[in-house]
Design brief:
The chain is mainly β. The chain has three domains: 95 residues, RNA Polymerase Alpha Subunit, Chain A, domain 2 (Beta Complex), CATH 2.170.120; 86 residues, RNA Polymerase Alpha Subunit, Chain A, domain 2 (Beta Complex); 94 residues, Beta Complex (RNA Polymerase Alpha Subunit, Chain A, domain 2). Helix content is 13%, strand content 52%. The protein is built from five helices and 23 strands. Strands 10, 14, 16, 18, 19, 21 and 22 form a seven-stranded mixed sheet that branches. The relative contact order is 0.12.
Length: 284
């Protein structure tokens, strides 16, 4: 038998966090003719009063004893009918007087893009949800996770609705969020960056040939306009030149000491440059 359940007499200032199940499945035993009557007639709703089980506590967990449920069910059954089992075996509900917290949402699962794209942003709307629970439970929550998502080989912006993973003893509002994966396409760019010197004595000046190098890099289309040459630093040091001179090497490698965020696969052309050291005349 399937018996609908309903919790009644809930005060207006009480929030039912985890409600009773919508129905109770009951296994009964009797003669076939008696059981046939139960099949022909739909079971009436079993009403259970909040006040009988929550008492005067301001928040917490209320358990409805199995004996109370069996007694209430037995009253509507034929005297010869015996209740063998019921599911769920234990009835409970969580409640409080509106205690809640705002908790951020975290995406669980796999989100990746096609090899020519990258994930620019991953967000949910809303980014935070209201969680109703007891103080003990709220103190343990740092985030609310989505149910596992699986978005692969994305080539365009994608938005889906995703449910939040339930947590026993909590009521989460809303129970679903909108997940947006924003993707961007990779592109290759290049920019001329001057070669600068470092740690040279004041009476020496470095000249390189060429005076600048081409820096080639990969960047997302959205960020490409933000990349300027002043965000790269290409340099040679005096210590390196002294070491190369001792070894009779006439070219010096250019080192990339700084690159902006968002770029990858960076390389320099040419990687080595000719150089000349010039004396700087002292002021009279």
């Amino acid at each position: 038998m399937t018996v609908p359940l309903c919790l009644t007499d809930v005060p207006h200032d009480v929030v039912i966090i985890s409600p009773l199940p919508a129905q109770l499945k009951v296994t009964v035993r009797d003669k076939g003719t008696t059981l046939a009557r139960y099949w022909r007639h739909r079971s009436d709703t079993l009403f259970l009063s909040y006040r009988d089980y929550a008492g005067n506590r301001t928040q917490g967990r209320a358990i409805i004893p199995r004996t109370d449920v069996v007694e209430a069910l037995q009253q509507r059954l034929h005297g010869s009918t015996k209740i063998q089992a019921m599911s769920p075996d234990t009835l409970e509900f969580y409640y409080n007087h509106g205690l809640h917290a705002t908790i951020p949402v975290v995406v669980e699962g796999k989100v990746d893009t096609d090899s020519h794209y990258y994930l620019l942003n991953l967000s949910t709307n809303p980014s935070e949800v209201q969680v109703y629970a007891t103080a003990d439970i709220l103190d343990t929550l740092s985030y609310i996770a989505t149910r596992p998502v699986n978005l692969t080989n994305l080539k365009e912006n994608t938005t889906i609705d995703v449910a939040l993973a339930p947590i026993r003893g909590t009521k989460i509002e809303p129970q679903n969020v909108s997940l947006t994966a924003t993707v961007d396409v990779y592109m290759e760019q290049s920019i001329e960056v001057p070669v600068i010197s470092l740690n040279f004595p004041g009476d020496l000046q470095l000249r390189t040939f060429p005076s600048s190098v081409k820096v080639i890099y990969t960047v997302g289309y959205t960020c490409s306009r933000e990349i300027t040459r002043d965000k790269f630093v290409c340099l040679v040091t005096y210590e390196e030149i002294l070491d190369l001179q001792k070894r009779g090497i006439n070219k010096i490698p250019v080192k990339l000491k700084s690159i902006p965020d968002g770029v990858s696969n960076v390389r320099i052309e040419p990687q080595q440059v000719d150089y000349l050291l010039e004396s700087v005349a002292e002021d009279e």
